[in-house]
Amino acid sequence: MAQQPAATPASTAEVVLTDQMVELDPITVVATRTQQSWIDTLAAVSVVRPEQIEMLMPMRTQDLFEGMPGVTAIQNGNSPQTAINIRGLQDFGRVAVFVDGARQNFTQLGHGDGAGTFFVEPGLIADVDVVRGPVSNIYGSGAIGGVVTMRTKDADDIMRPNETWGVEADGEFAGNGPMGYGSLLGAARVGQNVDLFVGGTYRNQDDYKDGDGNEVAYTGYETWTGIAKATIRPADFHELKFEVMNYESQFTTGSSASSTATQYATDVTNTTATASWNYSNPDDNLFDWRSSVYWNRVDEDQVKVVGSSSLITGDVGDPRSFVIDTVGFDANNTSRFALGAVENAITYGGDYFHDDVDNTDDYGFGEGYNPSGERGVGGAFVQWKANYSTWLEAIAALRYDAYSLSSADGGTSGDRLSPKFTLGITPVAWLTVYGTYAEGYRAPSVTEALVAGPHPAVFSGGLTPFSFVPNPNLEAEIGKNKEVGVNIKQDNLFVTGDRLRIKANYYQNDVENYIELVTYGSPACIYSVRGYCVAYNDYSLAQYQNVDEARLRGFEFEGTYDAGKWFLGLSGQTMTGEVTAGPDEGQPLSTVQPDQITTTLGFRFWEGKLTVAARWTAVAAVTASDLPTNSVYDATDSFNLVSLYAGYQPNENTLVRFSVENLLDEQYTQYQNFLPSAGLTVKAGLTVRFGGGEVAQAEPALITK
């Protein structure tokens, strides 16, 4: 069941013993690549573990990030693809997203969003770790906004430590749609040193109704996932892991909520293969090794099914496809030693990924928006982490990044060194104050640097045709983040066994060479019919350009109080962003998210077998004054979402769940979406686990988990 801690480094936990219970502080490696408790990490880190995922009962990927400060998952109702916005930065790899260590780089740009999305089945996710800002620059290139890592379920999520086999069956139903979901996962231990895991999921969603009771067209979809993993421990403290996962989804999507807007029947296949080799021996201070290689392929095939004939979208029945192959590797090692009273950890390594983009649209302009090409991005880093006694921690890191980008229309390349410095002071046992300066480096994407060609003419008023101009001299973005924060960790504060955890921070991220699409020139009509222009001169141009500098500022708060019989959570954010240099100086950034606050209150009954909770999320409005001139996004009203949850676990192998989402049936549209979200939705779920067998007693040296 999900209550078992998984055995990977990202999901193990620090045990806190009290007179009444055993509590767990999740361990994360996403900020520094060294294992550290989430609350002790000197960075803005948020984690989601199985017990939180159970309460979220995610139907869509965006549900996994509900209430996470500074993080917004953008997912329109007509597509399962998801984009992550962190601190107002998104698209083209500004947020690095990894699923089981494989980087997700898909882009399908058009009149709607799609400049950096991924596909994953939320029912398979066991852990989510997010670090906000470029403070995790050692984790990978490009992440000037932050890093998101997700781990899918594995054998240790299904089997207990003393079992040789386990099966987990999960089923969910939601009334608004309706929606049905089912999964069957199985695991087995072969001897002491081989774990096998295999499973599949199926989800079917019909069109949902919004808060006004209106059915929202094209919000249905169908998704299948198959996954298989093998974990082998060939020698003491060594672990090899192999994984293959295939995700398929069918849905109908477009770039407008209008009933006459162009729609595409879409079939997406997301295939991932990974292999990793890890070595970790608590008695070996010289080597603590992590390495992986991966291949990820996203193939999105579309056929136009609704809409009038157009040089932009073609005719009904015309196909198009968007394909990206990403291959990469990641390797790092940590060496530890003591110098007097100072404990030191030196982590060093490198990573590389190569994108091969192959897009085809013989009937419209899909390939014009999304040029084919190749990009290689890599880097190497070294990090020094030092702890003096229990009151001082210092981190210094230096990363080198390089990239090259090419296509039939040209190419570009660049490189840079990016530093990071963090200092944390713990004046009293329950309080840590830290400050960070960190830089990140993002290479331009194939689309940004190489998009080229004339936009098809539209023979009606109101839309001026233009030509895309490639920019092979486009410079990489550089994020320079300044941040101060506090971590508060207090046990037995009011009653024996209670726990208080708070993380709060203020940041300012100055992004040099910020890249935006800029239009210029003076188009003029040279021929019109009945007042409609049917021919223009060719002086209207569009090009991705560096707009000098953008600045993002904000405050984030995340706290929990758990007294055993009841618990309280509070999280929130406020942020601003604007262009601070160049011709658009003073213009707000269109990707800055509205202020929001989330409160959760829950109670546990019957010795913890029954958990009930209520969650309230208040999201501020986005007004016209918050948007730049000619923004592609619309202003949105404020809204309040209230949700209820009840989970009953009569025994360790059975969990029954109920939830009510959008209890007030609020009519709302998430900022940057064009479709209204679902209204009142009632959900129910049942998870049943079976297991058996008995593992032979292993020698201590073989137990590497």
Compact description:
This protein has 705 residues and is mainly beta.
Could you characterize what this model shows?
With 705 residues, the protein is mostly beta strands. It contains 4 helices and 38 strands. The longest helix is centred in the first third of the chain and has 7 residues, at 50-56. The two termini are 18 Å apart. The model is unreliable at 1-12, 14-22, 459-464 and 698-705 (pLDDT under 50).
Features:
705 residues; 22-stranded antiparallel beta barrel; five-stranded mixed β-sheet; 4 helices; disordered N terminus; signal; TonB_Hb/transfer/lactofer_rcpt
**Helix percentage:** under 10%
Please give the alpha-carbon distance between the first and last residues. Answer: 18 Å
Shape verdict:
globular
- Give the structural class: mainly beta
Compute the average pLDDT. 87
Work out the strand percent: over 45%
Based on DSSP secondary structure assignment, what is the total number of beta strands?
Answer: 38
Unreliable spans: 1-12, 14-22, 459-464, 698-705
Largest sheet: 22 strands, antiparallel, barrel
Q: What does the radius of gyration come to?
A: 25 Å
Helix tally equals 4
